[in-house]
Amino acid sequence: MQNEDDRPEVKDLLRELKAELPALDALFARCMSTWCEDIVYRFYHQSFKVYRIQNLTAEIVDKLRSLAPGRPLDSWFEQIVKEGTGREFKLADNEEWLAVTRPMLEAFFHARYFLEMAVKYGRELEFPPNYLPSGWAAFLYLYRLR
Questions:
Q1: Nearest-10 crossing angle of helices 134-142, 97-124
Q2: Residue 7: is its pLDDT beyond 70?
Q3: How far apart are the C-alpha atoms of 100 and 94, rounded to whole Å?
Q4: Of 33, 52, 60, 68, which residue is least crowded by CB atoms under 10 Å?
Q5: In terms of residue numbers, what domain contains 90?
Q6: What separation in angstroms does the CA of 123 have from each of 21, 38, 44, 72, 109?
Q7: What is the pLDDT of residue 1?
Q8: What region, left, alpha or beta, does residue 139 occupy, with left being phi > 0 and alpha being psi -120 to 50 degrees?
């Protein structure tokens, strides 16, 4: 098929997306839950509870990594995740709230976006296309396939 991306690693990625779709969908549902709405509120409320988002971010990233084991993820994405995870609340963080906590939300939003694209294109695509929808193209960037 002329519009089909026939690279084995891309076909394998889409096959894995389809196989993992129920788990991806369940994880995405958690990302869209009231609990996650609460995290943004906690950020603006300046509550240490915003730190909880790091666990979900890490879980999403682990799931995304598992779709293509051994394949490195995009370096910008990795930097965003690194800067937005692995922190523990310290009272002094209140003085630098934006600098300390905003990267946590940024990391979550990027991870959630790629999870959303995984769910969307795992459902919609029958084969990996050469003529790329923007979300699929971004998803391929995550795996350094674009």
A1: 110
A2: yes
A3: 9
A4: 33
A5: 8-142
A6: 8, 28, 35, 24, 21
A7: 57
A8: alpha
